Structure formats: C-alpha cells, structure tokens
Amino acid sequence: MHKTPYKRIATEEAFAPPEMLYIYRKILAKDDVDPGFKGLMGFYMSSPSARATHIMRCLTDLDQVRLQHMDEAGIDHQVIALTAPGVQVMDKATAVSFSQLANDQLAEAVRKHPARFTGMIAVAPQDPVAAAKEIERGVTKLGMHSVIINSHTQGEYLSDPKFWDIFAAAEAHDVPIYLHPNSLPKNMIEPFQECGLDGAIYGFGVETGLHALRIITAGVFDRFPKLQMIIGHMGEALPFWAYRLDYMHQATVKSQRYESIKPLRKKPSDYLRENFTITNSGVAWEPAIKFTQSVVGVDRVMYAMDYPYQYAIDEVAVMDNMQMSDEDKKKFFQTNAQRVFKINI
Questions:
Q1: Measuring CA to CA, which residue among 128, 106, 133 is closest to residue 117?
Q2: Cβ pair 231, 149 in contact under 8 A
Q3: 0.90 cut: is pTM over it?
Q4: Cα angle, residue 127 at apex, residues 107 and 151 outer, rounded to 5°
Q5: Dihedral of the CA atoms 48, 52, 56, 57 (nearest 10)?
Q6: Structure confidence by residue, pLDDT tens digits, 286-300
Q7: Any catalytic annotation for residue 306?
Q8: Would you say 89 and 27 are in contact if contact means Cβ atoms under 8 Å apart?
Q9: What is the pLDDT of residue 57?
Q10: Full set of structural domains in the chain with CATH
Q11: Which of 306, 314, 320, 328 is labelled catalytic?
Q12: How many Å apart are CA 313 and CA 321, to the nearest integer?
C-alpha cells in the first residue's frame, strides 16, 4: 500500500476476548436463546464457512494477525471496540464484571502497541450506575477516551431515562459514545430474518438508526448538550432522511399524536450536525461520503473499515482516490479521529 500524506485511522474495528466467547457458548446452550443473538453469534461461532472462520480468528487476536492485516491494507491505527453484542446479552452481574475484564485486556494491548491501537470502553447498560463508574475508570485508569454501546440491551433503549447516568458520565468525562449495531431485538427481528435482511445488509442500520433517533427525540441532547455520539455505516442513513425527519418531527409535535414526541430546542438535523460524528464503516462509496460531509460538515465524518467483518484491501485504495481536497481527505482519514478519540500519533 502506497504512502500517503495522512495517517489512515480506522475507527470501528472489533475484537472479542476468548473468555467472552466461552460465556457466549454457555448462553447459546440454553433453551431460551434470543433469536437475534443465536442468528448472529450462534452462526459465526459454529459455521465452517470461510467468512465465519476468518471473522472468529481475527476477532480474538490483538497482536500479530491484526497487525499483519493492518499493514497489508495500509491502516496505520485502529480504534478497537468489544464486538457486538458485547456484554449486553449477559446477565447484569456477569456483564458488569466482564466489561472490566475486557477493558483491562484491551488496555494491555494498547500499552503493547500504542502507535497502532486505541481502545473504547465497554460498559454494561444493564447497570447504569456501574456503567458510569466504568467510564470513569476507563478514562482515569486505563487512558481510554470513548465508549462503545452495541445498540439495544435485551430490547431496551438508551432513550429511557433510567439509562441516563451513562450519558451524564460520558458528558462529564468528555468521551463520545459509539452507538454500534446489535442483532435485532426479538420483537423486531422476524420480518427481517425470514428474508435474510436482519444483519449488516439492512437490519442493523434500521435498528441502530432507530435507536439514535429515539435518543434525539427523547430530548437527551437538550438534557446533555455537550454529549457527543458516533454512529457508523454512513450515519445508519439518518443524514439522507434529515429533511423529512425535521419536517415530520415538527408536524408530529403539532398534531399531539404521541405522548413521546415533545418539542425539542432544535431540529433533529441540528443534533446530527452538533452532537454526532459519522463514520463510513462498511460504506466505501464516495457519493455517500461526500453527501454526508455536505450535511454534517467535513469535521464530523471519518474513516472506518469495520474489521474484521469487512476486510477489503481494495476499498482503502478507493478511499485514497476520492476526488476531495487534500485538507478534507486528511480530516477524513486522520485528524477528525485524532480529535474525537484523543489520539496522539
């Protein structure tokens, strides 16, 4: 891969400790298994297909395999997070305990390869108070500066005020929350799964975009105006809906149709521009990237590969060859990520 006048920082890259996969196997062995979890991790952990075995091999490596793949693709630095569903499929006590173990493991990998890795803090939304404490520990003890939450937690959404201690902690410690997809909750999955559209092809984006929009319309950013969030996959399509979201939110407020839709201080698209950064993870498509930059600004769009779920070396060259100013391309690949994740390389 040729040298460029910028560092390539990939900002949505996943890992899975072997100990977590052991917990997953115990969950999958139960009679009453969440259908989304079974359909996603149950498949990847049991399938002999080339894609599944590649993903499982790469997820558990935080050393030479990952570094080799980064070098082959020309990726200078990865921002790494606990893969979906993380601890959010576990019981509360296990989730709280294991989030700490996972964060310690990731922090150790970052200490071993500080020029190549940055870590996100995993938390257990099942216990919002413990999650807030883990954010504090992650920042002050482990030197991490972002949080990963894999969308819904057993069908519950962060728009519920019972979770807002997490937002308060993230705002207080000046760390963004990356809202990453999860397998669809059981009350949503059936019409997607029956036609094979429940995963990254479509369902993930629909559910995560819904979650982000629930957070906006619940008034989270009016309550926590300095809170920053990150969403991937070209904003889970929300930038493309911005005009209609603004119009119909205002119309719904006026109609007084739903108790849950109340006036906000700003338009939904304003929160997208002011409280979200968007990555292109899984979308190596210049028109979508440029459109999103035009909606939220070049300072709020950054590069991600989505490793190991989407490891395509040729996509890096496509991004390098975008018709874009050198200044904007450096923001996209490097400096936006350095600012958002407090990366010093």
A1: 106
A2: no
A3: yes
A4: 75
A5: 70
A6: 999 999 999 999 999
A7: yes
A8: yes
A9: 97
A10: 9-341 (3.20.20.140)
A11: 306
A12: 13
